[in-house]
Amino acid sequence: MTAPFSGPTLELPPQLKRGLAAGHPWVYRDHVPRAFSAASGTWVKVRCGSYSAFALWDETSRIALRLFSEQRAPDDVWLEERVQSARELRRALLGPDTSAYRLLYGEGDGIPGLTVDVYGPFAVIVTYADSLEVLVPGVVKALGKLLKLQGVLRRTRVKDGQAPRLEVLSGRTPPRDLIVSEHGLRLYVDMYQGQKTGLFLDHRENRRFIGEACAGKRVLNLFSYTGAFSLYAARAGAASVTSVDLSEPAARAARENFELNGLSTDEHEFLAEDVFEFLERARRAERRYDVVICDPPSFANSRDQLKSALRAYVRVNSAGLRVLEPGGIYAAASCTSQVSPEAFRGVLAEAACNAKRRLQIFHDAGHAADHPIGMGHPEGRYLKFVASRAIAIP
């Protein structure tokens, strides 16, 4: 029998009721009584008119409350139920030739602010607020019980330019040359220093989709990281693939991934240089590509940076479209949560105008199915992926 809740109770403004009841899991600090204070990680019962739920309080985050359950304050049993539910969804969605996936997608799986990525026999936990630390032991326990893992790790968030740190929570450390599979392709994973937790798992289905359109084509992959988009294009029979990324280790890793999959590197380039400088040089040299993939890093971490992010997206996509053959395919992505799908399509329209092109969208997607989005939490869709045919202005 569940013990009666003995923690604090907060009354919230009535205008929040509709959103919270629909499943939005966040309450910002300016909606909380100013006099309230508690240690981060304290369970709080919130009331909003006739609606009530149990939330985790954070003393420092802009999101003061993250809502978890309308029934009870979560415990280890509750967490195990959520992890099991998430596992069942992934088992239904992922085939046997994929061993790298997101097991828990925070708000989308009912555990706001916490993600778990699985790379073969290893799982990596990331928390996005100090309050979430109270959940980590229960999640580790559930992972150990439900999955056959050799290690459960925590990837620290990058702060003030510091390098991420990998901490072992259970089991052993992963090897530096860990290999995972994705739709039958093999990829090295750098869980220690790589972007995200090692790979960009959210683009899995986008890679497969656009790769199938690359047979016989000259392909340019911008901001290529370790070459995952390039691998799909080469496997499909691309005539050539040029992968461009500022990072020398990333360019080297892309070549190694080609070799790992038995793909010849003779027809392909792996360039470590600034994307904007490369595109300007390619334009001047009148180099053209049949398919251009542009997946830049986030240009905005807050709403205050939105205008500069939109300008950056217009600039890079204008340059990318200028080196595309008329009638070619342009695949553009944005991982900036501050930019809405509508705003991103507006960016592409402006970029196309600058490049004297017209775009015909034939594919408009987001992240892979292992990143489910709560219907009441539209902010959960941060990734935009738009594939278009670019034609000259008639």
Describe, in short, the structure shown.
This protein has 394 residues and is of the alpha/beta class. The chain is built from nine helices and 19 strands. Helix 7 (275-284) packs parallel to helix 8.
Continuous helix count: 9
Q: Which class do the helix and strand fractions yield?
A: alpha/beta
Question: What is the number of independent domains?
Answer: 3
Sheet with the most strands, sense and barrel status: 7 strands, mixed
- The count of β-strands is 19
- Quote the beta fraction: 25-35%
Would you give the CATH topology of the largest domain? Rossmann fold
In whole angstroms, the N-to-C terminal distance is 72 Å
What is the second-level CATH architecture of the largest domain?
Answer: 3-Layer(aba) Sandwich
Strand order of the largest sheet: 15-14-13-16-17-19-18
Order of helices and strands: EHEEEEHEEEHEEEEHEHEHEHEHEHEE
List unreliable stretches of 5+ residues.
none
Q: What level of helicity do the residues show?
A: 25-40%
Rough outline: globular
What does this structure look like?
- With 394 residues, this protein is of the alpha/beta class.
- The chain has three domains: 9-69, PUA domain (Archaeosine Trna-guanine Transglycosylase, Chain: A, domain 4, Roll), CATH 2.30.130; 76-180, Transcription Regulator spoIIAA (2-Layer Sandwich); 200-392, Rossmann fold.
- Helices cover 26% and strands 30% of the residues.
- It is built from nine helices and 19 strands.
- A seven-stranded mixed β-sheet has the order 15-14-13-16-17-19-18, with helices on both faces.
- A hairpin with a 5-residue loop joins strand 4 (51-57) and strand 5.
- The longest helix is centred in the first third of the chain and has 18 residues, at 76-93.
- It is globular and about 70 Å long.
